[in-house]
Task: inverse folding
């Protein structure tokens, strides 16, 4: 499987990234649509992962007062556990670090993704909390 990741700067690519997010978060995880799309979408940097030429994953990052927050990581079900998430995460991390080399990278990881992020150098901080009724840990790059 050939996996590539690109910034979703073209209108069509951003729409594809939003469709991936909608399938994973709204359709599968039942996150309310109005919670999935927020005021940060316009200012965030969006990414789209491709697997053998088909849209397979999406993510975004944005600077905040606490550092750089990596968000909305979504991989479509047929592409999970096939390396798409790792390639996507590494590209997002590299671009965020290049843009803000001194900033702390952090994210809110769903419980089932915690080990995935740990394998990529993130460490949990604080107690378990809920976003959209889904348990999360705040994690920072160690």
Result:
């Amino acid at each position: 499987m050939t996996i590539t990741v690109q910034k979703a700067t073209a209108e069509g690519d951003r729409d594809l990234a939003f469709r991936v997010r909608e399938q994973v978060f709204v359709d599968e995880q039942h996150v309310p649509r109005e919670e999935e799309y927020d005021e940060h979408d316009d200012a965030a940097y969006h990414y789209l992962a491709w697997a053998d030429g088909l849209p397979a994953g999406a993510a975004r990052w944005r600077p905040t007062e606490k550092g750089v927050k990596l968000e909305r990581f979504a991989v479509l079900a047929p592409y999970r556990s096939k390396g798409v998430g790792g390639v996507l995460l590494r590209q997002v991390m590299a671009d965020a670090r290049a843009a803000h080399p001194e900033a702390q990278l952090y994210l809110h990881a769903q419980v089932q993704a915690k080990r995935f992020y740990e394998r990529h150098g993130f460490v949990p901080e604080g107690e378990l909390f809920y976003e959209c009724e889904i348990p999360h840990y705040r994690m920072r790059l160690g």
